[in-house]
Amino acid sequence: MGTIWRNCASSGGAGGSDPAYLGRAYDAKTGELLVRRRFATPVPELEWWNDEISFSRGGDDTSYVKLPPTLYDRLTARLPLP
Predict the structure, then answer these.
(1) DSSP states of 15-63 as a string?
(2) Cα separation of 21 and 41, whole Å?
(3) Helix H or strand E segment including 81
(4) In which domain, by residue range, is 48 found?
(5) Side by side, which strands form the sheet with 33-40?
(6) pLDDT tens-digit map of 44-79
């Protein structure tokens, strides 16, 4: 499965000084949103391993996504953002 990651920064971290980000993973073939994750990190940086994506260096654990995405990740990606 090919995956495309995108992110965008928001105005501030969730209770901390690190900027907050919204990371998204899309299926490269269909464009379907597979995962949408909010996380905070001092240094946004994409790292890719065989079965995991991380979009931070030194941030919190919410920036890690297992591949293939879990059913929970797929379902929450379809919900509207709060």
Answers:
(1) SSSSPEEEEEEEETTT--EEEEEEEE-SS---EE-SSEEE--SS--GGG
(2) 8
(3) none
(4) 3-78
(5) 3-9, 20-27, 33-40
(6) 777 877 888 887 776 567 777 888 889 999 999 999
Domain count, the chain: 1
- Contacts of residue 64, Cβ cutoff 8 Å, sequence gap at least 6: 52, 53, 54
Tell me the C-alpha distance between 17 and 12, whole Å.
7
Instruction: Give the pLDDT confidence of 14-26 residue by residue, as tens digits.
Output: 555 667 778 888 8
Give the closest residue to 40 by CA, choosing from 64, 7, 18: 18
Q: Which two tokens stand for residue 27?
A: 């299926």
Residue with tokens 């890690």: 64
Rounded Cα distance, 69 and 16, in Å: 27
